[in-house]
Design a protein that fits this description.
The complex is a heterodimer of chains A (443) and B (311). Chain A has 443 residues and is of the alpha/beta class. Chain A folds into three domains: 3-86, Up-down Bundle (Four Helix Bundle (Hemerythrin (Met), subunit A)); 101-289, P-loop containing nucleotide triphosphate hydrolases (Rossmann fold), CATH 3.40.50; 301-439, Signal recognition particle, SRP54 subunit, M-domain (434 Repressor (Amino-terminal Domain), Orthogonal Bundle), CATH 1.10.260. Helices cover 55% and strands 8% of the residues of chain A. Chain A has helices at residues 2-13, 24-40, 45-59, 70-86, 113-125, 143-153, 166-179, 197-210, 227-238, 256-264, 285-293, 298-308, 311-322, 328-340, 344-349, 354-357, 365-376, 380-384, 391-401, 405-431; strands spanning 101-107, 131-136, 158-159, 184-189, 214-220, 242-246, 268-271. The longest helix of chain A has 27 residues, at 405-431. With 311 residues, chain B is of the alpha/beta class. In chain B, strands 3-2-4-1-5-6-7-8 form an eight-stranded mixed sheet, with helices on both faces. Classes of the chains: A alpha/beta (443), B alpha/beta (311). The interface between A and B is large, with 46 and 46 residues.
Amino acid sequence: MFDDLSNKLESTLKKIRGQGKLTEKNISDTLREIRRVLLDADVNYKVTKDFIEEVTKKALGAEVINSITPGQLITKIIYDELTVLLGSNNSELKINGSGPTIILMVGLQGSGKTTFSAKLAKHLNSRGRKVLLAAADIYRPAAIDQLKTLGEQIKTPVFSLDVKDARKISVDSIAYAKENGLDTVIIDTAGRLHVDQELMDEVGDIKKLVNPTEILFVVDSMTGQDAVNSAKAFNEKVDYDGIVLTKMDGDSRGGCALSIRSVVGKPIKFLSAGEKLDSIDVFYPDRLASRILGKGDIISLVEKAQEQFDESETEDLEEKIRKNKFDFDDFLKQIKMIKKMGSLSSLLSMIPGVNSAMKNAKVDDNALVKVEAIINSMTKQERTTPKILNGGRRKRIARGSGTSIQDVNRLIKQFGDMQKMMGQLSGKMLKNPNFNPNTIKFN
Amino acid sequence: MNLFKNLNFDKLKEGLNKTRDKIVNKITEVVTGKAVIDEATLDEIEEILLSSDIGYDTTEKILEEARKRLKSEKDRSDVNLIEIIKSELSSTLTASTKDINSEIEKNKPYVILVVGINGAGKTTTIGKLANNFKQAGYKVIVGAADTFRAAANEQLEVWAKRADVQIVEKGTNTDPSSVAFETVNQAIKDNADVVLIDTAGRLHNKTNLMDELNKIKRVINKLLPHAPNDTFLVLDGNNGQNAIIQAEEFAKVTDISGLIITKLDGTAKGGVIFQISSKMQIPVKYIGVGEGITDLQDFDPSMFVSALFEK
């Protein structure tokens, strides 16, 4: 099994020059398909067009490496560009050094502002901030009650006034925070349509009056083509600092994120998934890119892995691969983790491209049992320094594991090959400036 | 006693004004001044349809039909092209055949279950529906079966007060099907005509929550064999292609008898209506065009398309 696997990997890694370049002609079918995929994912029509044109312009003439088609190459380039565009270095929440940090939430009705306000409050509380929630939605019936109930659940004070004046509530909440030693105020405003001049003026006024440290535009990830219009209108009015994508636990492809990023250029700061107030999701640009493109089931693979992998163990392993110190103990750990995740063949089938690349490679799940048995029969020293595995030791291991000496020899040879390959891989990764270890890190 | 005959056509047109501006005026702009309709023109029309959330497949279908018909058409004027697109759009909408007034007379109390994802506008819609039924002379009871979201009860209470109808509630975190049961029970006791049951917002990919809907339905049905008489799915007009999946998934656990599209008073074009209606053969019943209690309009497919194309 490892022979086949390593052959495939090696031939993919080996770049053979002169295999042709990307031309408009050899990628036109793929581009049409990608256009359709983006439109189905709710990426705005114009954004889709511009994005594909721009990426293609840059990519034309790129060399096509052996073993992949021009279509596959352009798909990969698009995926990478999408990841870059969605990601941003500027995604940290700004904190005010002097005086309270004021966070203003804005957005359309039903986008999830109130729920997210509570989540963010809890998130900041757990980081030592003293948060005040301000209930400035004076229009929706019981919106203030909703925030109060959520505040109780997360033990966070909620400021409200019995007046129909969102401006006054906002201003007074800051004074209240100062008086009571609270260092963060999250102002939950009413949902409003971007064409409602009166209400847009109200939110513009609140901005001027309280001078927020951070303004977040909260948007439903299921939003369609019109996302560009509302995002633009809100941006023109309050010039927000970041975007919050909500309802990410649904199955929408979230293409509006690309639309909004493209038209307003503001970073995506948070993802909100689910109604539980416990967690705010970290935003991974690569995962959102996969989701928009609907590439394979790579997301579920990552999620499955996340459940099983222990972060420190993985980091440790990464370090070892990088330093080429991967030994039989690590190998055994890997096997155990893989087994926790289900069968190897089902796991491989989830990775995009692997299905076609691995058509002829037979993955025998039972092979793992044998490998495990052999490693288990090794001494501690043999596992960390395989060099000492001489004939006598190999015979003992074969007997102990109920396998043959040939099995043991094969495993040791394959392990040696694998170590070499990993050395090459990590070398390549480190040389590639675009390689970001975070994109493969599980946590 | 006729429901929704208080329909304000101007309001509907007002709500759809932007939609119409976007779709029709742009199409007219594209077509005028060109004697022969070429591929470039159709491409521009494609852009207009796609950016209205009509969706790739439906857009392609409509354009293909338009191309076919244009080939044999002598008259390639803008007026005629719009007529062609208009008839293609109309033919994708499923008409509602049910007369709700006579249905209510036959099945009292007439039970309507309102479902949808979080933030679609269910509670607001219930408030408007309650008002409409009440204004039409019916005795209405609303049931607060959204026992999950903080203060959902209080929100519905305010709407019940505004519409001047009775409300049944049991408080947060109680079993929603027991609230539904009690509401219908109360309606039977009080000889109410119409029962509106608000449910918690749930994402359609959460199996356990979707099962809960099924339970609510079963409980109601046990008490009243003809109920629920209608299950309305509320869709946010701002939503894109995911609304189709929502409709499909909700239809799997409850029989969706009608759609209500909300928030059409913004710039969102609600083109998703065409797709869902054609894919699933479910009629659109009402559209929401504002936050006022009267901002719910009867949806008439031919009127909707006419309003789109009116200059």
